[in-house]
Amino acid sequence: MNNQPKLHIFKDDTLWQEAVIRLILDVISDSLSEKEYCTISLSGGSTPRQIYERLAKEGSKRGINWETVQFYWGDERAVPHDHDDSNYKMVKEALLDHIDIPEENVFPIPTPDQPESAARVYGLDLQTTFTSEGNTFDLCLLGLGNDGHTASIFPHTDLVHEQKAWVKEVFLKNKDTYRISVTAPVINRSRNIAFLVKGANKADALEEVLNGDENPDEYPAQLIRRSPNVHWFLDREAAEKISG
Ligand code: 6PG
Fold it and tell me: To test the ligand 1 pocket, which listed residue (17, 41, 43) has its Cβ within 8 A of the most ligand atoms?
């Protein structure tokens, strides 16, 4: 059985966007054939913003009934939801403010709380939504930092080795700030995972994550499982160094 992730490499940005949107539509459709809701964990950062904006413009006319979608966050910065660094704020501006999604379908990480309590509360929320053994999110969107982090699982932090907590806070010395992140074991229980990675500055990290020696302390995105329903949506610049 091929247990390799699926690489989707595009030189054209519109095709890159369309491929990501297509996966999201397919996951929603597949999920709703079995369940009442499709659960999607959103990534922060800048790359996914254009996808959220496309979903805002096209989602309904392409068949998405937002009442059947639940949004979670894979990680958050420990800032208020109206702070410019907030992943919630980015998604609200790009997507939530433009679609008819019930408030009860949107599950932001409660960052006004202290990082530790925000992580604990969000972890309990996820444990009431998902069973302890089965799948978690129907789709988990992730980014890749040029240092090999994903979500807020940064190199040489305790989060790399966190196997018990569902959500954990982490203090980033170089950024002098806390982040809250869903942990790798919970991400890996997602039915589908999609990395959205663009730009030449990601090429080295991508090569190490996909083809380098196993070293998750250095390249935490290596923690994310390799299987056919793990997709890497790449532009040619990000993919310039991956062989094969
Ligand atoms: C965040 C993200 C983070 C992001 C990567 C890539 O909160 O910033 O969760 O993991 O996905 O840093 O960010 P870009 O897409 O902006 O390059």
Answer: 43
Q: Name the pairing type of β-strands 167-172 and 177-182.
A: antiparallel
Where would I find the H helices in 33-171?
49-58, 87-94, 115-129
Residue 25 Cα to ligand 1 midpoint, Å, equals 22
144 Cα to the center of ligand 1, angstroms: 6
Tell me the percentage of the chain whose pLDDT exceeds 70: 98
How far apart are the CA of 37 and the centre of ligand 1, in A?
26
pLDDT in tens, 31-81: 999 999 999 999 999 999 999 999 999 999 999 999 999 999 999 999 999
* 3.30.390.10, 3.40.50.300, 3.20.20.70, 3.40.50.1360: CATH of 6-239: 3.40.50.1360
The answer to whether the pTM exceeds 0.85 is yes
Which bin fits 14, alpha (ψ -120 to 50), beta or left (φ > 0)?
alpha
pLDDT at 241 over 80: yes
Atom of ligand 1 nearest to the CA of 74: 9
